Amino acid sequence: MDHERGHALWVYAHPRAESLNAQLRDAGAARLRADGWTVDVADLYAEGFDPILVEEGGADVRAEQRRLLAADLVVLQFPLWWYGPPAMLKGWIDRVFERGFAYDVADPATGRNRKYGDGGLAGRRALAVVTAGDRADSISPRGISGDVEDLFWPLLHGTFWYTGMEALAPHLITGVHGIDDAGIARLARDLGARLGAIAAEEPIPYLPMTDEFYDHSIALHPHVSSGLTGGAAHRRPS
Amino acid sequence: MDHERGHALWVYAHPRAESLNAQLRDAGAARLRADGWTVDVADLYAEGFDPILVEEGGADVRAEQRRLLAADLVVLQFPLWWYGPPAMLKGWIDRVFERGFAYDVADPATGRNRKYGDGGLAGRRALAVVTAGDRADSISPRGISGDVEDLFWPLLHGTFWYTGMEALAPHLITGVHGIDDAGIARLARDLGARLGAIAAEEPIPYLPMTDEFYDHSIALHPHVSSGLTGGAAHRRPS
Predict the structure, then answer these.
(1) What is the least distance, in Å, from the CA of B202 to any CA of chain A?
(2) B1: in domain
(3) What is the spatial distance between Cα B195 and Cα B171, in angstroms, rounded to a whole number?
(4) Which member of A82, A142, A158 has the closest CB to residue B229?
(5) How confident is the model over A134-173, as pLDDT tens digits?
(6) Which chain A residues contact residue B140 at CB under 8 A?
(7) Of A91, A219, B5, B60, which one's alpha carbon is 20 to 30 angstroms from that of A195?
């Protein structure tokens, strides 16, 4: 499946303007533009986004929702803090991905609430670009930090896929403490190469939430992914 | 192992004062006090905590750190939003669990930076009390939301255990949408029963980050938990 180059929303959550993350963001957005994409950079700290959900809605939330709806590709870039996104980005999701907008959108044909592969953001693809201080081997199936797809399960399956977006494998950059300029240049090239091929990349083949795969309690039927547990059980067999 | 009843810090992150969560918080704190604990309730929304990490430190962070150090039991209570804590609580962790305070505390005897079972919060136990709209079966090894310990791995292992706190199994309350007063009373009784026995409860037996279990890349030695991956690989065999 080759997706047309189109419009990308690049959501960025890092507090320091001179960070490695800022350099990667600029390199990534430049690469997409060079390839023919239009890019909207949402720098949440610089824009002063308020990530604290008190009540639903608000003019700022509507504006962020319009940015999301305009995008064919959504990139969330953040440093891994406590094995998750910074509060700034978590709160952007908490507030912007509202019920009735991002999920539980009623399907007028069936009356069912759309989610998991069929939410309000269906038709989009989503990529997490994440920097971590951990060594590469510590984020692995037997590493102390756990497997990358387990770590990102809440984001990949519980957020991207839940709202209908196709989840691309996370672009995880490890061992960033004390990296030098040559190392940064290499990381920027690697990210550019990934983005250059992103329109043709296959997403993680998560199963849709249909009666074919899930029972009424929303657990897998016994004959689906028999014997498997964890994230791997929720993928189409390759 | 029976821990003395002592002092509990109950960190609470929910925006609405009249919520189910507020009733459970009050019931839980009352039960602990009735059992002889002293309890400090940190109501992050009501106290106006600023969860956005811009620069490290700050007088408010020092105050939260003192609250943590005073506690024998740390309870984090929150509604499950996007399979993780609300931004308010994530940011409390982002800001308060600083390097040199909660982890990478230098051990003067060995010069090693203490973490994973031996961080700056060692000697404490931690419990997550979490409400979710999901049906119980959907948060299970083959449920669409994934297994409870996989979902909470970043918090249980990557935060509690990383900073030296013993992680108790999460107290997960599912199916809370539309619950009635009788249902709330039952949930409060269940939580009280759990808390009444908490001093004697066995924590999750995560492996310490020592040369006995982990290699230099901080992955498990081949002979440790052979054949296992995921969170189960990082526990002592039962």
Answers:
(1) 22
(2) no
(3) 10
(4) A142
(5) 899 999 999 999 999 889 999 999 999 999 999 999 999 9
(6) 219
(7) A91
Residue B89 host element (H or E): helix B87-96
- Do residues A178 and A213 share a domain? no
Please check whether residue A140 lies inside any domain of the structure: yes
Name chain B contacts of A230, Cβ cutoff 8 Å.
141, 146-147, 150, 230
Average pLDDT of chain B to the nearest whole number = 94
| A188 in any annotated domain | yes
Which tokens in the block code for residue B98? 């600083």
Residue B74 lies inside a defined structural domain of this protein: yes
Same domain, A56 and A81: yes
Digit-coded pLDDT (tens) for A35-63: 999 999 999 999 999 999 999 999 999 99
DSSP state of B133: S
The DSSP output letter for A170 is P
pTM beyond 0.90, yes or no: yes
Residues in chain A, overall count: 238
Residues B150 and B214 in one domain: no
Residue B211 and residue B111 share a domain: no
Residue B14 domain boundaries: 6-205
CATH code, A175? 3.40.50.360
Q: Is B53 close to A15, i.e. CB distance below 8 A?
A: yes
A11 shares its domain with A92: yes
Q: Are residues B116 and B216 in the same domain?
A: no
ipTM for this prediction: 0.95
Interatomic CA distance for residues B181 and A152, integer angstroms = 36
Residue-wise burial string across A58-97, b where 16 or more C-beta atoms lie within 10 A, e elsewhere: eeebeebbeebeebbbbbbbbbbbbbbbbbbbbbbbbbbb
Residues B35 and B124 in one domain: yes
pLDDT for residue A1: 42
Q: Which residues of B touch A228 (CB under 8 A)?
A: 142
- Given a contact cutoff of 8 angstroms between Cβ atoms, the answer to whether B118 and B209 are in contact is yes
Whether residue B171 has pLDDT greater than 50: yes
The C-alpha atoms of residue B49 and residue B88 are separated, in whole angstroms, by 8
The answer to whether residue B190 scores a pLDDT higher than 60 is yes
A136 vs B219: CA distance, rounded Å: 10
pLDDT band at B18 (very low <50, low <70, confident <90, very high): confident
